Amino acid sequence: MMLLIATFTLLAAQVIDTDMSRQDQKDTGIYKLTDKQKSSLQQWIDNNYTKRDAPLAAAQTPKKGQPVLQDNIGNGRYIRLSDLSAWEINPEDTPITQGWITPVEIHVSKSGDANYPFMLTNSLTESKVRAKKISSVPSGK
What we know:
By secondary structure, the protein is α+β, with helices and mostly antiparallel strands. Helix content is 33%, strand content 21%. The chain has two domains: 2-48, no CATH class; 69-134, no CATH class. The chain has five helices and six strands. Helix 1 packs across helix 3. It is elongated.
């Protein structure tokens, strides 16, 4: 059993060591951590965040069944969710979406606004914005 725990600790520490450059390790102070501390940090990261370049089906499937904010584009003007839907945000609401960061679950509901018929709600901050679904984010944004 102890061998299994030691092996897991070593593997988790190696993930941090190989995924981060030496400069990043120095800048963040991770190089000062023991293998056990690196393992604990890696476990916490794995439990709470998803890697941006991970496959959508595996890494960005939300725990509660809601899509997750994948990209915030054009300073909050457009957002893309993990279900690959793209949204144009009401210009009056972009000051709100400018601060939305990944990963966070987004709840989609009806807004009652004819021009922006959907309400997107950030599950972390409970902030709401009006949006309309678009086929794709315009290029150059």
